[in-house]
Design a protein that fits this description.
Elements lengths: L5 E5 L5 E2 L15 E5 L23 H6 L2 E2 L4 H7 L3 E2 L3 E6 L5 H13 L5 E5 L4 H10 L8 E4 L3 H8 L7 E5 L16 H18 L2 E6 L12 H5 L2 E7 L5 E9 L7 E7 L2 E4 L3 H5 L10 E8 L2 E13 L7 E4 L3 H15 L6 E7 L11 H13 L7 E3 L2 E2 L5 E2 L4 H10 L4 E5 L13 E5 L2 H12 L1
Parallel strand pairs: 6-10, 6-11, 7-8, 7-9, 9-10, 15-19, 17-18, 19-22, 22-23
Antiparallel strand pairs: 1-2, 1-3, 4-5, 11-12, 12-13, 13-14, 15-16, 16-18, 20-21
Helix pairs in contact: 10-12
């Protein structure tokens, strides 16, 4: 048998090389390469001589119908995963430390166990007593959730195979798991990959839903090899700011439901509470009558969402003005500022610009361009925007406004919350129609918006 040789593996991206270097050539990370022992090659005589089982698609009808979505009872969580959990699926949940991942999953496990199903919570970071104390604080002390504290993947799989197959399994976290067949420390790329593979194989064979909790790096990405995100069926990110009470569960991959869906939770003393109407909560404390504030009618997945965008434009004492953004894309802000200056003659070169999305929500939708531009101009001119108006539309480099998707859903949400007017691109299919409860004010290009706000200023 050939002798195992050492190799050097990047702990950020998983790329392997024959020698050590201070910087990974694939991902560019510094001091991320660690020496690992490569497994010895397997001889041809030791390889499996079996055959893969192939079944016709029509023969899977009855089995496929049984794989329905299992509603957990947590409506916001079910919304993100596509209506509920699927038998035999594997999910990866990532988020910053202390954001509430363990709290949410413990609440979901308790909700599933209360339905008479078997829910197991395996912690590799805390003792079972520590998990029980958290359950006491959440009011879940009487929930029939099975608790365990282990880090060996083989021991965990053997334990889960005893008795009735579990319906829901939480592994907190995958970075603490280790496989005795791999000669490297827990948390390394090889260990994370091997442990995840064993747990996912168990989920597929036993029909259990396995949730893997993952740590994130300083860049906000789930630590470990990227291949783990390809192995699982769904990837969820738990977002939020410690300074805000709201937490956002965002789906970035889902084989059984829509992607980019979000669930909104409120961090309380009794755990994470569901927020049934996030729009009303995000704009409940908005600054009415203050310059630099615009309400954006956005869309997160299939959910329309209203949020306040705040802007502040102030003279800069610095040679290079500041551009500070919270909750939005800074590159998008730079583009809007360039279009305002090049196409509309609005100079902001000597002014500091601060942009904030109220409530801790992060917006990446281009439809927010018009609301951002309106907030910037309102702050620059010192003129407050109409309290009863919502804004949405994409700005092109020519200064024209482009229509966005799901206009009717945005208008319906705005009308439900009492808004009376919507400012949108004139090219939108609904721009020339009357929508009853809400009036439409179409705008052809950004220059027209600047002219309108300038007249209001005078």
């Amino acid at each position: 048998m050939a002798r195992a040789q050492a190799r050097y593996v990047c702990q950020e991206c998983g790329s392997a090389s024959a020698k050590w270097s201070g910087r990974c050539e694939d991902c560019g990370g510094w001091n991320t390469i660690v020496e690992e022992a490569a497994a010895a090659p397997v001889g041809a005589q030791a390889r499996s001589r079996g055959s893969a089982r192939i079944i016709e698609l029509g023969d899977l009808g009855a089995r496929g119908a049984a794989r329905a979505h299992l509603a957990t009872g947590n409506r916001e969580f079910d919304r993100v995963v596509g209506g509920g959990l699927v038998e035999g699926s594997a999910l990866l949940v990532g988020g910053d430390p202390g954001i509430g991942k363990s709290t949410l999953l413990l609440q979901v496990a308790a909700a599933i166990a209360s339905q008479g199903r078997r829910a197991v919570y395996i912690s590799g970071e805390e003792a079972a007593d520590q998990v029980r104390l958290r359950a006491d604080r959440l009011g879940l002390a009487g929930a029939p959730v099975e608790l365990g504290a282990a880090t060996s993947t083989a021991d965990i799989v053997r334990t889960l195979e005893r008795g009735r197959p579990p319906d829901f399994v939480v592994i907190d976290s995958i970075q603490t798991m280790w496989d005795d067949r791999i000669d490297s420390a827990p948390g390394s790329v090889a260990q994370v990959r091997a442990s995840a593979q064993s747990l996912i194989r168990f989920a597929k064979e036993r029909g259990s839903c396995v949730v893997l909790v993952g740590h994130v790096t300083k860049d906000g990405q789930i630590a470990g090899p990227r291949v783990v995100e390809h192995m699982v069926d769904a990837v969820l990110y738990f977002e939020g700011d410690r300074g805000h009470r709201f937490r956002i569960l965002r789906g970035v991959k889902n084989r059984y439901g829509p992607t980019d869906e979000i669930g909104v939770f409120d961090m309380t003393g009794r755990g994470l509470a569901e927020v049934e109407n996030p729009s009303a909560l995000f704009i409940a404390t908005r600054d009415r009558g203050a310059p630099g504030a615009a309400v954006f009618a956005g869309l997160e997945g299939s959910r329309p969402l209203l949020v306040e965008i705040q802007a502040l434009v102030a003279p800069s004492p610095l040679g290079t003005p500041r551009r500070a953004v919270v909750g939005a894309d800074q590159a998008r802000l730079s583009m809007i500022l360039a279009v305002l200056e090049a196409r509309c003659g609005v100079s902001l070169a000597g002014r500091d610009v601060y942009l904030n999305v109220a409530g801790g929500l992060r917006i990446q939708e281009p439809a927010a361009d018009l609301a951002v531009a309106a907030a910037l101009l309102s702050s620059l001119y010192g003129t407050a925007l109409d309290d009863g108006a919502v804004w949405f539309g994409e700005i092109s480099l020519s200064g024209a406004l482009r229509p966005v998707a799901q206009t009717a859903a945005r208008l319906k949400e705005a009308a439900k919350l009492g808004f009376s007017e919507a400012v949108l691109p004139s090219a939108d299919e609904l721009a020339g129609e009357a929508t009853g409860a809400i009036a439409l004010r179409p705008v052809e290009d950004l220059a027209g918006l600047v002219a309108g706000l300038s007249r209001a200023r005078e």
